[in-house]
């Protein structure tokens, strides 16, 4: 096997072992969207009327509507968890070990990104399985066709986490990132309500939601779950992914980002 | 030369200069003690040597490879033990070493052979299945040194590797790494602020406020003084 693939396998395995060890992380990752699905959706169902919009062919319940958004939420939160562990690794020193490998640095970062994406996808399918047991079932082919969309979503949001981790100086600053990046990104998107609904309240908020990459990530997943291909959403998500990745690579370049900080 | 060569290295954190025109060479198979008080710039130098930082001012050659022009070739020749432990404490010694071997492109039987050889060298074979968390400080350090030797590097960089260890462990590790340079021909750069870790036959580089104060054979530099006295005199500190 080529050295680059050997390293990829080892990094993914290490992340998987870490994930298995942190059972509470897995449980929290599942409980969070399930609370939205079971509790919040029940409350909002009556308040929110949803018209027929693509990819839906008929009227749907609110629970059905938020499933793709909750898939995106799982990936977003896992990406941030992965970024947090990168910051932790840097503070604890093991990041240094990774970066002194003779493999190209961009590849080492890609390995971390792929590992985070794999962990995200495992969690998304676990969530979809529980949702199906709860009675929220999607077209069977959607579960398969969503996989490429989930991979792209995982890589894009993972790259965002990677870029943020290169900017965060200390572990304590991570709470700030959660408040100022993750929550606005999640709430100012189509994850919980369709954009036309947002436009009824505020055109400005609608416009912000429309340029939020997370909106397009969620729409990419939503369409894929119904066997449809949303070119616009794919384009926006991929573009955002490339920008986030470029920022991450810049941030981890020893001449620019984190490594210029002492410690 | 095939050892380690540092030429006119300068590095600053913003307006604060951490290293100023640092130049010295370590010949192949030589043990070089980089002695300096806390804040002298030793860790910054190690960060530059391991390419965690880069600078345009100066040049680093590792076993003949230019670190800035051929970073992969240079990094492949470096084994490093950082001041802070970098073991995953929840993994066994073997899994830690296997992870590192993979980062150097080693897997399967090749990795097994390297891991066994490295653990045998450090007398750690019987601890290969123990979790790093369950090892004492001395054994953790030995595991890290074993790990640094896995890919048979030409140059070993150790940044204050005995920090937090008891006297016996410090002595054992210091003696072992000295033997590595003498018997296995490894070029060693050992950063420390503890004078008792330096032997008379070692090359001594004295670093203070980011500058080289002295570079030469330890016995010749200290002459009739104890090394601790020489060190305090040179750095202007008082006991």
Structure description:
The complex is a heterodimer of chains A (263) and B (239). Chain A has 263 residues and is mostly helical. Chain A contains eleven helices and no strands. Chain A has helices at 3-21, 23-47, 62-92, 94-99, 105-134, 140-167, 174-187, 195-201, 203-211, 213-225, 231-251. The longest helix of chain A is centred in the N-terminal third of the chain and has 31 residues, at 62-92. Chain A is globular, with a radius of gyration of 19 Å. The two termini of chain A are 35 Å apart. The relative contact order of chain A is 0.14. The model of chain A is unreliable at 257-263 (pLDDT under 50). Chain B is an alpha/beta fold. Chain B is built from eight helices and ten strands. Chain B has helices spanning 42-49, 71-76, 93-103, 108-121, 137-149, 167-183, 218-222, 227-235, and strands at residues 4-13, 16-26, 31-35, 59-62, 65-66, 78-81, 155-159, 187-192, 203-208, 211-217. A six-stranded mixed beta sheet of chain B has the order 6-7-8-3-9-10, sandwiched between helices. A four-stranded antiparallel beta sheet of chain B has the order 2-1-4-5. The longest helix of chain B is centred in the last third of the chain and has 17 residues, at 167-183. Chain B is globular, with a radius of gyration of 18 Å. The A-B interface holds A 1-4, 6-7, 9-11, 14, 17-18, 21, 92-94, 96-104, 108, 254-255, 259-262 and B 13, 18, 44, 47, 50-54, 71-73, 75-76, 78, 80, 82, 84-88, 90-91, 95, 98-100, 102-107.
